Amino acid sequence: MNKELRRVSIATLAMFLALFVSTSVIQVFQVDELRADARNVRTLYASYSAERGPILIDGNPIAESIEVDSVYSFLRTYPEPELYAAVTGYFTLNQGTTGIEGAFNDYLTGTANSQFLDQLGALVTGQSPRGAAVQLTLDPAVQAAAAAALGDRKGAVVAIEPATGRILALYSSPSFDPNRLSSHETSNVLQAYNELTSDPDEPLDNRAIAGDLYFPGSTFKIIVAAAAIDSGRYTPDDTFPNPPSLQLPLSSTVITNSGGSTCGGTDEVSIARALSLSCNIPFAQLGRELGEQTISDYAEAFGFGTAWEVPMTATPSTFPTGLDDAQLMLSSFGQYDVRATPLQMALVSAAIANGGNLMQPTLLDRIIAPDLSVVQQSEPVLAAQPISRTTAETLTRMLVDGVSTGVASNARIEGVEVAGKTGTAENGTGAPYTLWFTGFAPAVNPEVAVAVVIEDGGGLGQSGSGNQLAAPVAKQVMEAVLSR
Amino acid sequence: MSSTSTSTPAAGSPRAFTEAITIKLRTPAKLRNLELVLLVFAIGITGAAVALVQLGALGEIDTAFIGYGAGLGVIAMVMHTTLRIVAPDADPFILPIVTTLNGIGIAMIYRLDLADGVEGWASESVRQMTWTAIAMIVATVVLVVVRNHRALARYRYVAMFVGIVLLLLPMLPGIGVTINGARLWVAVGPFSFQPGEVAKIALAVFFAGYLVTARESLSIVGRTFLGLRLPRGKDLGPILIVWLAAMAVLVFQRDLGTSLLYFGLFLVMIYVATGRLSWVLLGLGLFVGGALIAAQSLSYVGWRVQGWLGAFDPTVYEAQGGSYQLVQGIFGLASGGLIGTGLGQGRPDLVPLAESDFIIASLGEELGLVGLFAILALYILFAARGFRIGFNGTDDFGRLLGVGLAFVLALQVFIVIGGVTRVIPLTGLTTPFLAAGGSSLVANWVIAALLLRLSDTIRHQPRLIIEEDA
Hints:
heterodimer, A: alpha+beta, 17 helices, B: 470 residues, mainly alpha
């Protein structure tokens, strides 16, 4: 009987072993995953019962928790809701959480793993738990300039410090009021949420990083020019035929320059001049000679195909594959199926501005624990080196010419050398244009790189241009940085 | 009973002989003193837990409730004193373990009452304390009445009859009640009762009594088939009856857990009694076959399996009777993490049935993995004390009964906690001593009393040990 008893004892022990394992798996190994599950209302309640940390800019809150007399103890409020909605995102009881509120939820609620010791301390000392504060890189003056300059037109602005990747402004229009979504009345939240999602202008879309992607239009010529020069196959002075129109190979499509212009009126034009005047036909030919692979490689090196985490995830910009000659030529000036976010085009300018070094873009300055100790400090991170320093310098000269003597004239700032490129992207027959500007200033020791996109032709249908509408917005944003 | 019956060697014995032996007098008072210390400790843990709950959830100490708790402590002391008289050699660990588990359970149920804002007789904790008092008194009575456990063997067929009737009672129309899809309850007037809980004791007594007498014929006679020695047809009878009863529970009471519990108990006892692995394999095969057929043909069993394997699947999660409760319980455990939120600080009230079926998830949330490990360790210790009776017992009936009772409790813990943590499909059993529920408390305290009684017989003899020095 003892042999059997021993075996039964072992079997019983094995049953308990299974329970030790199963509880450990749930309570230790799967904790992060389970806490992140959208159906886990505990995470939500916990985030309300503890004082959620504020989101700060220069020490001033743009999102903070106010103590109220309700089951949730704290109400999330946004002092300047519309200005920062694209950055803060919203924090709701029943419709999820987005933006910085979502990306840094662990820290804001104080449940991040790095705050474990603080939690333990609070447990021992009996203090009520508090979340950490998240300080952002945004500059309030630049952000305000972006919002004011864009006005009520649909579009987005991104401004980046080229040397560090710190994002100085990130604005998407139309904006929304996150205070309506942070209410504790779930029916009000639901109503506001439904109104926002059914709004045809899609205010909840963050157009700067993750809205519908746009055709970059002529701003993409920067990448083609960079590929041509950096590969060593061309110099800025190499020329291409410059006819007013060109029928694409094996296609009935005829391409022209923007507005049907002659683009300087010469029979041949240099790459440098074609860039500053934004001639389509020379770039179509250049792109065809460079080939799909080369352009695609450079686009990727500049960040196309990368889901940037700022830390909200940006939609990757795309360059198409498997192109025939006609499609490749269209792609060379940012049409056909090339698509980009304003963030990505700002990064292209930032990389050139920073001598060919592309810095990882980020909104995070630092995370500060309730005891004011710094939990995490953001340091500049080199993301890629798409082009050499010499190529960057050459491109800078070309882009400065584009502003000073070319078609990007509205970005000129008195006494400052501005480098930039406009874009006027077509969206199909009869559809309003997408208007672009991307560039940086000053040309030497740049302080800011910027990208502006304006949808729906800025209200002018097919008669507006990037220079007319987007360049002045960029100018105001750059001025806000330079006048600090 | 006297502890001073030391016999000295007769005068005139050779000196050399008297120096070569040592006489040890085992003093049961030591055991009881150890029990007393542990019991004071157990009551202290319970009091501290209740105080923490009050500080965590109320922010102040409510002395009235602690007063009730102190009353229970007094009853535990009465039981301890009774043991000093009627079972002085009983195992000193069982009573403190059970008291601790019961106390932690009350603290958690009280905590959930505070979250739900119920007081007085509406609150589960007051009822649970009343039931605990009743259960302890019943256990004390069992200790006093059952002075010799061998007497129980005589009533084995009565036990069988009582056990099977209790098991099948909920199926009777009129008094059987279906709660949460499982028909495990009997209601007479305002009183509801889960007879299956008591049936496990009756059946353990029957199995032990029956197997002790029938083990010879069961283990020796039989034919060999494919390397397995199969029992004779007529010896198969009892197995088939128990299997049928288990299947009837599964089909008519819609409860896989209860059916697994009784069948598991039977298999383990028959294995320990006969040492025939072939019977266990045969029985397991029958059970798994039956369960598989049930999973295929009975929608509620199939649902349980789906809710287990695909718990996080949105369609299963949202379905009526789907995995919502299970997943919420797991979320609770996860939010507790390693060290827990602290008593009164979590949100265990978000899980349906947090005070009964899911009390382990509630405890895991507020006490953390550390707390759950401590609770599991208490159960292991309890089972080990029972198995010890099996190893060291003096008569086969007592040994079998001890193993059976200890195993059925361990298996129940496995079925419940395994269900909550997705080791096996979720079933509707209660966590012994912890979960809210009167019938379960009374039954498990009686098991504790029987184990105390059985352990007392082991140490009874020899009391005087004479050892020769090396």
